From TrEMBL, chain A:
Cellular-component GO terms for this entry: cytoplasm; nucleus; proteasome complex
Listed name of the protein: Proteasome maturation protein
Lineage of source species: Eukaryota, Metazoa, Chordata, Craniata, Vertebrata
Pfam families: UMP1
Keyword set includes Chaperone: yes
Organism listed in the record: Triplophysa rosa
Keywords: Chaperone, Proteasome
Source organism, top-level taxon: Eukaryota
Keyword Ligase applies: no
UniProtKB/TrEMBL annotation, chain B:
Name of the featured protein: Proteasome subunit beta
Organism superkingdom: Eukaryota
Species of origin: Triplophysa rosa (Cave loach)
Membrane-traversing stretches: none
InterPro entries cross-referenced by the UniProt entry: Ntn_hydrolases_N (IPR029055), Pept_T1A_subB (IPR000243), Proteasome_bsu_C (IPR024689), Proteasome_bsu_CS (IPR016050), Proteasome_sua/b (IPR001353), Proteasome_suB-type (IPR023333)
Family: Belongs to the peptidase T1B family.
CDD domains: proteasome_beta_type_7 (cd03763)
Active site annotation, chain numbering: 44
């Protein structure tokens, strides 16, 4: 099939390796857990915004930490990153949605509303992961 | 057992799962013989001016879906905060959701700061959000309001650029409305003069642009008072028929008349109440 039959907006997308990191523990496609793979899926993002949206929070944090470092010195972002790491560890069981309240308060996103609060709200997700499999995966037993 | 939900968290916000499928469907639409549904746009005339005591925002009320009018009386002037209103052109859903999100954010912000929100804050929030989505959110906005620093008017484009000007127009009828503004705008007008100028600009857009039509809505914002005039002017009245095509009784002569009664027996009668809750 002609792969160039995709719409013109996809021509703006640059092929990116590692778009969907499908490598399992042995370095090849983990078909059991992630399903069948497709080279097209891995190389081209399906929407020009997909990459920037996936990394948006990370990039914002990086930018803010950089600015903070330039203004207040190295200790400020280091301390904050330690607090972020601690807050990120407060989670519920793997198959339940966590509120991430401490993390939101640290970031300041507890008093803002964006599309990530309205669309695909994990609280209203219709699918649930299989609890036993997910806890075993988290513990590395699977 | 190849459950996807084992390893991948559900991403919040926009999901791009169907983009490839949609692209393939659109590329093959001639083969399948159907067209993808067109988004409802507002194909609009919206405008705003700054006058002596505040700002006047105006909008038409037609929403189009391709070449068909989807809504003859939709409201394009959205509430952002008690002293700030925003007109929206472009994709109707995008303008609606964007203004609602910014309105909620501004409310939270003003509760945190215990101050009346400023128009510049709303402008900054809108442009940062629209730039983040690189123009894929098709919302062209005219933002106006009065805050502690005075009356302000901004126009915001879908890609995130903004202009702060005394008079702005957006939408498909923007050229017609801008022509009226360029001719008759003066700084520091009175309220009545400003309202009539905006009404004429929107009327120019309604009568000269196919994407705009129906009524004219106005919103006059001054310090401490907001007049939301909907509709301010019904420019397009549905025509009244001048003649009646009903025929009088006796136009057609009656030759014979036979009456056959249908005798029906009532076998059973039952009452079911509708669930009107």
């Amino acid at each position: 099939q002609n792969t160039r039959g995709l719409r013109s907006q996809l021509k703006d997308s640059v092929p990116v390796t590692g778009l969907c990191p499908q490598a399992g523990p042995y370095g090849v496609q983990d078909t059991l857990r992630r399903g069948f793979s497709s080279v097209k899926n891995e190389l081209l993002p399906s929407h020009p915004l997909e990459l920037s949206e996936k990394n948006f929070q990370l990039n914002q944090d990086k930018m803010n930490f950089n600015t903070l470092r330039n203004i207040q010195g190295l200790h400020a972002p280091l301390k904050l990153q330690m607090e972020y790491r601690a807050a990120r560890q407060i989670q519920r069981l793997p198959f339940l949605p966590s509120s991430n309240l401490a993390l939101d308060t640290l970031r300041g996103s507890d008093d803002t509303i964006g599309f990530e609060d309205i669309l695909n709200d994990p609280v209203q997700c219709e699918m649930m992961g299989e609890p036993h499999i997910m806890t075993e995966y988290k513990f590395g037993l699977l | 057992m190849a459950t996807v939900s084992v390893c991948q968290y559900q991403p919040r916000g926009f999901s791009f799962e169907n983009c490839k499928r949609n692209a393939l469907l659109e590329a093959d639409s001639t083969k399948f013989g159907f067209n993808a549904p067109a988004a409802r746009k507002t194909g609009t005339t919206i405008c705003g001016i700054v006058f002596k005591d505040g700002v006047v925002l105006g909008a038409d009320t037609r929403a189009t879906e391709g070449m068909v009018v989807a809504d003859k009386n939709c409201s394009k002037i959205h509430y952002i905060s008690p002293n700030i209103y925003c007109c929206g052109a472009g994709t109707a859903a995008d303008t609606e959701m964007t203004t609602q999100i910014i309105s909620s954010n501004l409310e939270l912000h003003s509760l945190t700061t215990s101050r009346l929100p400023r128009v510049a804050t709303a402008n900054r929030m809108l442009k940062q959000m629209l730039f983040r989505y690189q123009g894929y959110i098709g919302a062209a906005l005219v933002l106006g309001g009065v805050d502690c620093t005075g009356p302000h008017l901004y126009s915001i484009y879908p890609h995130g650029s903004t202009d702060k000007l005394p008079y702005v127009t957006m939408g498909s009828g923007s050229l017609a409305a801008m022509a009226v503004f360029e001719d008759r705008f003066k700084p520091d007008m009175e309220e009545e003069e400003a309202k009539s100028l905006v009404r004429d600009a929107i009327a120019a857009g309604i009568f000269n642009d196919l994407g705009s039509g129906s009524n004219i809505d106005l919103c006059v914002i001054t310090k401490g008072k907001v007049d939301y005039l909907r509709p301010h002017d019904v420019a397009n009245n549905k025509g009244v028929r001048t003649g009646s095509y009903r025929y009088k009784r006796g136009t057609t002569g009656v030759l014979t008349k036979t009456v056959t009664p249908l005798n029906l027996e009532v076998v059973e009668e039952s009452i079911q109440t509708m669930d009107t809750s």
